[in-house]
Design a protein that fits this description.
Strand 6, helix 5 and strand 7 form a beta-alpha-beta unit. Strands 2-1-3-11-4-12 form a 6-stranded mixed β-sheet, with helices on both faces. Strands 5, 6, 7, 8, 9 and 10 form a 6-stranded mixed β-sheet that branches. Helix 2 (71-89) crosses helix 8 (260-274) and helix 3 (101-109) runs parallel beside helix 4 (123-131). The protein is elongated. By secondary structure, the protein is α/β, with parallel strands linked by helices. It has 11 helices and 12 strands.
Length: 319
């Protein structure tokens, strides 16, 4: 009996010790506390300034030589037109004159990266801009119920010139190599007749058109190009050759970057101003009798004429 008790006691102690060893699993690792994530504000995204608002004005460029207005008259017209457009559309429009057609075309074509620019271009400059997909014709200048002006070739009556071919070996006069009526348009008319300007013996530049006409009258020049209106001021010692070139007087061209809403508001305002009692705000800049919707036939004619000559449109734009 005593042995049985001793055996049971030993078994109980062994079981107790075994239980203690199984429960003693060593030190238990404590979980590491993760920091609570906190939201961080992102830098604010700048809101684009609408086209025509303060800080993002629309530029409106006019080519030099649109009319014979004085600089003072032009500046008064610019100031008044800017104020009228702001009143009509709530758009800020900065108006300026460009030194050359090339500058006006460049400003129009760069409207994607630079300030949005709308441009009043002559027929040749518009064709150059259109060839580069820089803009769309919207309005045209009308004078005496015509959208076109006429360029002519004039000669001294004692020069012996009766046709373009007779100009070979003669003296040609112009205002400059970038002047619209006295060189760019004559170059197109001569190219239409397959006449090279290299055939002239001399090409002489004059200060302005009146000086050129006086030289033509006096026989210092054999031939020159000019507008039909300027030709009308010459005396009887000057006559024109047959033919001439009709081209749009002025074309308002919009770039694709001008939003539709601003484009419609600007077009409506310009039309109302030019065709109403405030037309004097535009006349020193355009010399318009009215502004009308762009006519595709008028624009196609000059494009076709230039294309047939093979003349470089970049050169024609004065670039």
């Amino acid at each position: 009996m005593k042995r049985l008790f001793t055996l049971l006691l030993c078994l109980s102690l062994a079981a107790a010790l075994s239980s203690c060893r199984r429960g003693d699993a060593g030190p238990v690792s404590q979980p590491t506390l993760s920091p609570t994530p906190r939201s961080t504000s992102l830098p604010p995204v700048a809101t684009p300034i609408p086209v025509g608002a303060e800080g993002n004005a629309i530029r409106m460029v006019f080519a030099v030589g649109a009319t014979s207005s004085t600089e003072d008259e032009v500046q008064v017209a610019i100031d008044g037109l800017q104020a009228a457009l702001l009143d009509e559309t709530s758009l800020i429009v900065e108006i300026e004159r460009s030194a050359t057609d090339a500058e006006a075309i460049s400003a129009l074509c760069n409207s994607v990266s630079d300030p949005v620019t709308v441009a009043w271009l002559n027929g040749v400059a518009y064709t150059a801009a259109d060839a580069q997909d820089c803009g769309t014709a919207v309005l045209q200048v009308s004078r005496e119920d015509s959208l076109n002006t006429r360029a002519v070739l004039a000669v001294n009556t004692r020069s012996g010139i009766s046709s373009i071919d007779d100009m070979a070996g003669k003296t040609f006069c112009r205002v400059s190599a970038t002047d619209f009526y006295t060189w760019l348009l004559p170059s197109i008319m001569l190219a239409q007749s397959n006449f090279s300007t290299a055939s002239f013996t001399t090409i002489t530049d004059y200060e302005d058109v009146p000086a050129l006409i006086r030289a033509l009258e006096d026989g210092d020049c054999d031939a020159a190009g000019m507008s039909e209106a300027d030709y009308a001021t010459a005396n009887s010692r000057v006559r024109t050759l047959s033919g001439g070139l009709d081209l749009p007087i002025g074309v308002l061209t919009y770039p694709e970057s001008l939003p539709l809403g601003q484009a419609e508001a600007l077009t409506a305002a310009l039309t109302a101003i030019a065709n109403g009692t405030r037309n004097t705000l535009l006349q020193p800049l355009l010399g318009q009798d009215a502004l009308v919707e762009a006519d595709s036939d008028s624009l196609t004619a000059i494009r076709t004429a230039i294309t047939r000559t093979g003349v470089d449109l970049g050169e024609m734009a004065g670039s």
